[in-house]
Specification:
By secondary structure, the chain is an alpha/beta fold. It is 34% helix and 19% strand. It has 9 helices and 10 strands. Helix 1 links the parallel strand 1 and strand 2.
Length: 242
């Protein structure tokens, strides 16, 4: 009880603050099933191949189950093919790697299947003309924010934007020397995506903010395309001092 002559005085020793969480203390994601929507395209195939090669269980999704099964058979490594809805239902984490012009339509059709799922959007809204690639800004702000608006019951994150499909699919390359910028609203979810990126040798997932910052991350791909064309390269990114 506080008496009148010690009111406002707290003689109790302050409890020590808990130690800050190590940002590189990431969860074990080895048992998660990863679905890749758009897994028959170059980027999707490359991500499916790299994750499966690292030991992850992977399912490729496509609008046509035959295309998904053919791509899975070509890649091997235990990868399975399924129609998009089945891929979403069977997966714990779903990577969206569809073309930008099919992004909204694909997600609108999968709201039920993706409810409660961790969704990783890696779509880059880009246009091309005779001057090269340029960024498109969706009404929602970014592809990832469009996904979040279309999938209110999913846990949407953004990652894997800056990876070369050529390097991802090159079976002779053991490691891919790059960082993956990961964005999302829940640190627990972004930790999972960072951990998935870290399963691929040479790759590291780095937390890069909330989904409202996804537009500039998606847009940077236009700059990387210009770099690659000028220098005949397959450029990626490294974040220094972290």
């Amino acid at each position: 009880m506080t008496s009148p002559d010690n009111a406002g005085t707290d003689n109790t020793a302050a409890a020590p603050k808990p130690a800050a969480k190590d940002p590189w203390d990431l969860p074990d994601v080895s048992g998660l099933v990863v679905g890749v929507l758009g897994g028959t395209g170059d980027q999707g195939r490359g991500l499916a191949y790299r994750l499966a090669r690292a030991g992850q269980k992977v399912i490729i999704g496509s609008r046509a189950v035959e295309r998904a099964e053919t791509a899975a058979a070509e890649l091997g490594l235990g990868i399975e093919g399924a129609e998009n809805a089945e891929c979403a239902r069977r997966s714990d984490v779903v990577i969206v790697a569809v073309p930008w012009d099919g992004h909204a339509k694909t997600l609108e059709a999968l709201g039920k299947e993706l409810a409660g799922k961790l969704v990783v959007d890696c779509v880059n809204p880009l246009g091309f003309d005779k001057k090269g690639a340029y960024a498109i800004k969706p009404e929602e702000g970014s592809a990832a924010e469009q996904a979040a608006a279309l999938l209110p019951d999913a846990r949407v994150t953004a990652a894997f934007h800056h990876l070369s499909a050529v390097l991802l699919q090159d079976v002779s390359i053991e490691e891919i020397d790059t960082d993956v910028m990961v964005l999302g609203e829940s640190r627990a979810d972004t930790d999972i995506v960072q951990a998935l990126a870290g399963r691929i040798p040479g790759m590291r997932g780095v937390f890069a903010g909330r989904l409202r910052n996804a537009h500039q991350v998606e847009s940077l791909v236009a700059n990387l395309i210009s770099v690659n064309r000028r220098y005949k390269a397959h450029a990626g990114l490294r974040v220094t001092d972290v």
